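Q: I have 422 residues here and want to know how they pack in 3D. Can you give me a structure?
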Amino acid sequence: MRIAYVEMVGGAAGNMLAGAFVDLGVPLEALETQLRTIPVDGWRIETSRVVKHGIAATYLDVIVPGEDPPYEHREHGQDHDHDHGHDHDHHHHEGRPTRHLADILEIVERSGLSPRVKRRAGAVYRRLAEAEARVHGTTAEAIHFHEVGQIDAIVDVAMTCIALEHLNVDRLYCSDAPVGNGEITMAHGRYPNPPPATLDLLRGVPLRPVDVRGELVTTTAAAILSTLAEHPGTRPAMRVEAIGYGAGRSDFGIPNVTRITVGEPLEDESSADGLERDEVVVLEANVDDMDPRWFEGAFEAVLAAGANDVWLTPVQMKKSRPASIVGAICPPQRAGAVARALLEHTTTLGVRLRTQERMILPRRVETIETPHGSVRIKLSRLPGGRERRTVEYDDVRALAKARGVPIEAVVREIEAQMEERS
């Protein structure tokens, strides 16, 4: 098994990811050979060696004459998807290409890319469309893609998927995402940073504030990493084989690069038994004076702070007083944020923390297409080789709500589809 770790040192953009893969050794010719099977013309790729705060990196640019935005996004830290507003009013985008999700999926399907690359690229664009649909209050099929539907963004997404296959990468991981200051200027006005669709895509990815003015993780990169990467914010234990740096165009007070490391996962005595091992922090707080109706909001805040799970355990305290223990589990780097959320959103005056080692099943996440939309499936392998498949509940719930059908009906369809694939 080979794994890759994407480290968003100064952020990430589609072309920065591609540049890092080229920098670590993926031949540009191999990428172009595959990319030329995609039925879109009029583009070319240029690369150059640059230095960002003392770090040598590859700057890769997909040049499409006539498809570049008519203005520069001065506060945007990265390249390509400067204006990712997908409003339904064509008058703001006269003369600029507009594609629907079906158009892009058709482009990908008509290409000569491998089935796995097609599946990964299609999943990235469907996830992007669904994030935009939530922001705009519509459906994924109705969304009009503008900048992120342009040829350069289509090529950016495909390059990452092709590079992963070229390197035989089975599992992708990524760091937390840096978030800059200020507002973002787009075609329809000024928006908070990160813009709504980008932030929606970064659900579940730990966000790290940095003192930089501008958008550091673009919509395209957020779509790629949130779709393909496992355990965002966690660095995997690995034996490093290759390292690559992809550069952004702008210069900040920090190196504007994305670093990608490729190698083999480290094995220990647990992995010899088909298991993996990691470290988590368990947090607990006793609560005996809180209205039970407020626990739902507290749970949401704790999960948003980076907890993997949160729960209530009924207990009996002094003077026979009924109470609850609010428990949570999170990666070590999120312990402070989760503890603050417990203190702010419950009535407890203190939170207990303990670090524990756990043994877990090897797992990966895949996205499958269903008649209702894309759904993430968590695949874990039991000792002995048997595979366990679990549907991501949040995806199913969102699809059921958007389509106005029962969750149970969506789950049954997905489970039947998985049985057909096995």
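Q: Anything worth noting?
A: The chain is about 30% helix and 30% strand. Confidence is low (pLDDT under 50) at residues 69-96.
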